[in-house]
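Today's session is about reading a structure prediction critically. Students often jump straight to the picture, but the first step is always the sequence itself: look for stretches that repeat, for charged clusters, for runs of hydrophobic residues. Only then move on to the predicted structure, which in these notes is written as discrete structure tokens rather than atom positions. Here is the chain we will use throughout the hour.
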Amino acid sequence: MRVGQSDRPQQRRIPEPGSSSNTLFAGVGATARVRSSAGYVGAIVKLMNRKPRAKRKEPPTVESPSALIDARIAELGDWRGEMLARIRALIHEAIPGVSEEWKWRGTPVWSQQGIVCTGETYKQVVKLTFAHGASLNDPASLFNSSLEGNVRRAIDLREGDRIDARKFKALVRAAAKWNAERKAAKS
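Below is the predicted structure for this chain, in token form.
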């Protein structure tokens, strides 16, 4: 291939009928795309000189949600990590075999036939959002955030706050029971 020549098709203007050039092509002012033989040769040379494809990479190892939650607790390294670890333990006591998930770019989620609650960490608060908290009976008045919504309710825990383990576990069980009843009603 010559310097400055590409392997892209080149446009060549077809001469007007009656002109002194080749009059085999008909059509007034028609243009045609013509690929030069040098373009084909260039493409073949490129293919021959192409580096062999790299071997397929192994897919990245995906950590389990539980391991990611462990890492988040360790990463926080302050009262928020301790609070999240305490809440996690209470949820596991309340619902043995609860599923742990890692959703929305880093939010721990506990599920049992649907989302029971999430454990979000912010600078000033650990927020436990119950997906269907508005449908749950909360005689202990644990919910203290997102009270205006029709679906969710949340518990905001600040540094130094204590949570009544018995009442919290009862609320978690109620959320799991609500999920089970909802699923049974759909069946």
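Discussion point for the tutorial: The mean pLDDT is 83.
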